[in-house]
Amino acid sequence: MNLRHKYIAVEGAIGAGKTSLAQLLAERAKARLVLERLEENPFLPRFYEDRTKYAFQSQLFFLLNRYGQQRELLQQDLFYDCVICDYLFAKDRIFAYLNLDEDELVLYERIYDFLDEAIPKPDLVLYLQTSTDVLMERIRRRSRDYERNIPEEYVRDLNERYNSFFFHYSQTPVLVVNTDNVDFINHESDLMDLMEQIRQMKGGREYFVLNRRR
Known about the structure:
Strand order of the largest sheet: 2-3-1-4-5-6
Distance between the termini: 22 Å
CATH topology: Rossmann fold
Radius of gyration: 17 Å
CATH superfamily: P-loop containing nucleotide triphosphate hydrolases
CATH architecture: 3-Layer(aba) Sandwich
Order of helices and strands: EHEHHEHHEHHEHE
């Protein structure tokens, strides 16, 4: 199915299901899939053990790694009509403002502003809005070593910041998808309904309303 968008970014807090949905959409639309390379960040496991000590190193690594991936999109493979990415570059600032101190933020902002000018912007952002309780359940279920000790307070704070960020975000069209009561993996109709709304969306902000067929 042609999604009628050249570049789609899928976003949401930890455990929202960004990667799973991006993979499903790319498979159905025969799109090029770009995944964030979390495992390449050597500071991430240490960050979750001591956020104050390793926040700046982890943040800069992610920022530069994401920048490198986004620059590659400028040389998009001509065999693909669509690119689907499981993150939005601009969301990097959510984590920065959550984890960095004032002096670190000054330096971070100078680097971010310089890099942001040189990367492509998506045609559409899918924001996976999810309750904190569901996020924690999914984090525990997937049981990644470096995520096992993430405090619920941190996830709650992060989730609130995601909601605030995308409430004010206006750089590109946004489709807000509440994922608490949908199952894109096990219910084909959920995925097809979402893909149809993506195809029909032309701009602004819309909300995915489940129309599960029985």
